[in-house]
């Protein structure tokens, strides 16, 4: 069974059937991406697939083996997927983990939210930042380029987060 393809593109019905037939191989794919990362990148939201993988023993803090070195929480934050982020945090994801460039999930949420300033998903990014900060994400820790998440908070579109 090709678990990465099933996790990325399979219907929930197909996923449910596959899990009934046997536990997934949680090993990363040939590019170094664990199955949980594939679930978190699903366009239709990967909550159910991620939950099933976490129940099967997937590590919520495992970084991808590619050049990005991101965790599933980075991906959830980047997409503004609050339900998925809450699940990952409940299962032990570290809110302030860093990728290859020193960016944490809160940076990903702030950056993605700044690209969607007037968009319909804007409020989700604001709530995502609050959620991550509540769980210990640092706003003043610089990335490799010397910028911290607080740098984003100086922009007018993040006025409602300035008290953080």
Detail the topology: elements first, then pairings.
Elements: H1 3-9, H2 12-21, H3 35-40, H4 47-55, H5 72-79, H6 82-90, H7 105-115, H8 122-134, H9 149-153
Task: Write up what this structure looks like.
The chain has 164 residues and is mainly α. The mean pLDDT is 84. Helices cover 48% and strands 0% of the residues. The chain contains 9 helices and no strands. The chain has one domain: Ankyrin repeat-containing domain (Serine Threonine Protein Phosphatase 5, Tetratricopeptide repeat, Alpha Horseshoe), CATH 1.25.40.20. The termini are far apart. The longest helix is centred in the last third of the chain and has 13 residues, at 122-134.
Offer a concise description of the structure.
This protein has 164 residues and is mainly alpha-helical. The protein has helices at 3-9, 12-21, 35-40, 47-55, 72-79, 82-90, 105-115, 122-134, 149-153. The chain is elongated.
List its salient traits.
9 helices; mainly alpha; elongated; 164 residues; Serine Threonine Protein Phosphatase 5, Tetratricopeptide repeat
Please count the beta strands (DSSP E, at least 2 residues each): 0
Class per helix and strand makeup = mainly alpha
* Share of β-strand residues: under 5%
Number of domains: 1
Main sheet overview: none
Percent of residues in helices comes to 40-55%
Label the CATH architecture. Answer: Alpha Horseshoe
In quaternary terms, these chains amount to single chain
Order of helices and strands: HHHHHHHHH
How many individual helices?
A: 9
CATH superfamily: Ankyrin repeat-containing domain
Rg calc: 16 Å
- Mean pLDDT, nearest integer? 84
What name does CATH use for the topology? Serine Threonine Protein Phosphatase 5, Tetratricopeptide repeat
First-last Cα distance: 46 Å
> What's the CATH class, please?
Mainly Alpha
Note the overall shape: elongated
